[in-house]
Amino acid sequence: MPLKSHPIQNGQYLYQGKFNLDKDHSLPFGVVIAKDEAESDFQISYRKLAYLNNYADKVKLLELINELNQTKTFYYTLCLAGDGEIFLRLLGRSTTDVKPLYEMLVIGSNIAKVMTAELKSKFPSLGSE
Q: Which residues of the chain have pLDDT under 50?
């Protein structure tokens, strides 16, 4: 999976890519980390899992998100943004050995796939964008 690299503020870099859910659908993801630091905080985000289109469902959706965060997202956290986007995020710390970060990225792609399916099965009204 090729990644695009962009410098952002505070000496950090954003690495962006797309994870294929199936042959027709993909999820954008990003990794933010400081470059050339011996020890650094990082963030992994899987974006656009789904969109809340019917705000009458917001309370029930937040209840489901809380349940999933407690039972199925492991190190990740499902979030509902103000614009209705549902995304998955992990905050962590890494050293020059990036293997744990890579493993969290791989685990995250599986969690994102499962969460997307579960959200859409419980809330068929959720949109893709």
A: none
Six-digit token pair at 97? 């050995």
CA gap 46, 12 in Å, rounded: 18
Per-residue model confidence as pLDDT tens digits over 35-54? 777 898 999 999 999 999 99
Q: Are the C-beta atoms of 111 and 73 separated by less than 8 Å?
A: yes
Q: What is the pLDDT of residue 1?
A: 56
Domain at 53, CATH number = 3.30.1460.10
For 48, the token pair is 């656009």
Residues 6+ apart with CB under 8 A from 33: 12, 13, 15, 40, 41, 42, 43, 94, 101
User: Residue 103 sits in which domain range?
Assistant: 4-122
